[in-house]
Specification:
Order of helices and strands of chain A: EHEHEHEHEHHH
Mean pLDDT of chain A: 78
Distance between the termini of chain B: 49 Å
Number of helices of chain A: 7
CATH architecture of the largest domain in chain B: 3-Layer(aba) Sandwich
Largest sheet of chain A: 5 strands, mixed
Structural class of chain B: alpha/beta
Mean pLDDT of chain B: 93
CATH superfamily of the largest domain in chain B: Periplasmic binding protein-like II
Low-confidence stretches of chain B: none
Structural class of chain A: alpha/beta
Oligomer: heterodimer
Strand content of chain B: 15-25%
Number of domains of chain B: 2
Shape of chain B: globular
Largest sheet of chain B: 6 strands, mixed
Shape of chain A: elongated
Strand order of the largest sheet of chain A: 2-1-3-5-4
């Protein structure tokens, strides 16, 4: 039996990625006193949510299971009738921000928007942070890939021309400037061409 | 005229073809448009992307804009339908266990007769039938309900129609969560390919001429951007004409199969385009000619009577005032904008904007704006006719 704060909002976070789920839960804990549960298994989602009967459900917009929640909004009983947060036109700004950040929230009908706002604000902030981290990771990976390609191209130029490393890099950089391209692009073209000729 | 970028959303399905072909085959460019295509993970996400302006146009389940106008479902800005992107194109299938019981009972999976398949399904299913559909507001849900109710008193006591995202459909069937499903291609064929189930019927066996996906925009956008919406309608009409040519099928399937679009094998995507299906994991072959319509028979025309048929089903199931629903729905399908955009292009434009749904046993010639227009066969499996002026 789970002890519930008498007045704490109960929130279910639907998230299959563990790391991200932790981040969102942490963010919510910082924002206030909530009763938080995570669902990480998409099968039987509707049943799992109905069993836990939360006040709010948070889900990533990119999660295809979101359409299952949409169906829950149509459930017939007045008490267990969650409606999409986006139903509240007065919160349009908040909704647009949520869509932008990639979070969908479903709330039980009749919940005061004021009580929901800190939840959504915290969720939006965490979703944005996660997006940023993912972008940064992708950027770092790309930079690493590019460095490898440039090193290979440099080696090829050194061998073909019998020149040193600095000189080879200067040649690549000049070719890039002449063609109005990035050094990595010129290096990639060289490596690809060499692959074809090999 | 400079090139205008229009962000447009789609859900990765075979019937996203018109939007993708419009961009890839240059029909958008002919109208000085670039479609910036956004793949949406779910229908509710796509509807929100459209409502909040992340995209200006979207492929949409035909009932979604109608439901929004009737105040059903998650909130949305008012949406308008500029054209019908595709007619039919869904399949109904059953789990492997149910398929075995159907075969044992002598059902031959003829893939064309909704009455015999429906009766066999009801008998084989027993007291409960759990069916997965992609979205609560979908032709899938409407056709299933219409079909099972129309089969008469033998209907199972408990029919549960529940939402399952199409990519998870095969797994949901395999795990025993559902007995049957109705889904857009290629997800039915994927379920067969993965050995999870067998195909029982094409959607067209229930209604031969059901509007499946539409081109939806925010109503406010349609009103403030008449020029752009006209160019969009023309680009998609040309894309539909190209897709309807059998010679285009191979290339269309290849384009759709690309990683950034459906990211699924072209061979499986092509089954819906050619109407040649593998209906069981054992390899039984069946044909459904005209399985999906993009062009012929004025397929793109957004008939007000189509919106009204949908509205009537929604009103019945949700206890809404039927007459009010019929009145509201008609204006969601903007046949006026469609006409204005295509007048003078050689497109077939019917004289009326509403028709008797289900009243054509064979293709027929109807009065057009200038020339007579050929319309598709339009028949419900039970032979009933929907007259929007005398509906209840």
């Amino acid at each position: 039996m789970l002890w519930r704060m008498p007045d704490a909002l109960s929130i279910v976070v639907v998230e299959t990625n563990r790391e991200r789920a932790y981040m969102i839960v942490d963010g919510l804990r910082e924002a206030g006193e909530f009763d938080i549960q995570v669902i990480s298994e998409p099968s039987g989602l509707a049943r799992q949510i109905q069993m836990r009967d939360p006040d709010v459900v948070l889900i990533d917009i990119a999660n295809p299971s979101r359409d299952v929640l949409e169906e829950l909004t149509l459930a017939s009983g007045p008490k267990d009738r969650p409606v999409a947060i986006f139903a509240d036109r007065s919160e349009d700004g908040l909704s647009a921000a949520a869509v932008e950040a990639g979070v969908s929230a479903y709330v039980v009908d009749g919940l005061q928007p004021a009580r929901l706002k800190p939840v959504l604000d915290a969720a939006i902030a965490r979703f944005r942070l996660f997006q940023r981290m993912r972008t940064e990771l992708a950027e770092a990976k790309r930079a690493l890939e590019e460095r490898k390609v440039i090193d290979r191209a440099k080696g090829m130029v050194m061998k073909a021309r019998g020149i040193g490393e600095d000189e080879a890099y200067a040649l690549l950089r000049k070719a890039a400037m002449d063609q109005n391209k990035r050094v990595a692009e010129v290096a990639q073209a060289l490596v690809t061409a060499a692959g074809l000729l090999a | 005229m400079t090139v205008t970028r229009i962000p447009a959303g789609y859900v990765p399905l075979t019937d996203a073809a018109p939007l993708i072909a419009a961009q890839e085959m240059g029909f958008a460019a002919e109208e000085k448009l670039t479609l910036e295509l956004h793949r949406a993970p779910s229908w509710s996400a796509l509807r929100d992307m459209l409502a909040f302006g992340q995209v200006d146009a979207a492929q949409m389940l035909a009932p979604v804009p109608v439901a929004a106008a009737l105040g059903l479902g998650g909130a949305s800005a008012p949406l308008s339908v500029l054209s019908v992107l595709s007619v039919n194109g869904t399949v109904i299938g059953v789990s492997s266990g149910l398929a075995r019981r159907l075969t044992d009972a002598g059902h031959g999976f003829s893939f064309d007769d909704a009455i015999s398949a429906g009766k066999a399904l009801i008998t084989a299913a027993g007291p409960e039938l759990r069916i997965g559909v992609p979205f609560p507001f979908s032709m899938h849900a409407e056709l299933l309900t219409y079909w099972l109710k129309g089969l008469g008193p033998d209907t199972p006591r408990h029919i549960g129609i529940r939402t399952v995202p199409p990519p998870l459909m095969a797994e949901a069937i395999r795990s025993g969560e559902f007995d049957a499903f109705c889904v857009g291609e290629p997800w039915g064929s994927m379920a067969v390919e993965q050995g999870a189930g067998a195909l029982l019927l094409p959607g067209q066996a229930i209604w031969s001429c059901a509007p499946e996906k539409v081109l939806a925009v925010r109503s406010a956008w349609a009103d403030t951007e008449p020029g752009l919406s006209g160019r969009l309608i023309r680009a998609l009409w040309r894309a539909g004409r190209w897709l309807a040519d059998p010679a285009s099928r191979g290339l269309a399937a290849e384009i759709l199969s690309a990683r950034r679009y459906l990211d699924l094998p072209a061979e499986i995507i092509e089954r819906a385009l050619s109407g040649k299906f593998t209906v069981t994991p054992q390899g039984l072959q069946r044909e459904a000619p005209g399985f999906i319509g993009f062009h012929d028979g004025a397929a793109g025309f957004p008939w007000r009577s189509q919106a009204q048929w949908i509205a009537l089903q929604l009103a019945r199931r949700n206890g809404l005032d039927r007459q009010k629903a019929l009145d509201t729905a008609g204006s969601v399908f903007r046949s006026d904008l469609y006409r204005a955009a295509l007048r003078g292009t050689g497109a077939e434009l019917p004289g009326a904007s509403s028709k008797l749904e289900g009243a054509a046993d064979a293709p027929l010639l109807a009065a057009g704006e200038s020339e007579p227009v050929s319309l598709l066969r339009n028949r419900f499996f039970d032979g009933r006719v929907f007259d929007p002026l005398a509906a209840d």
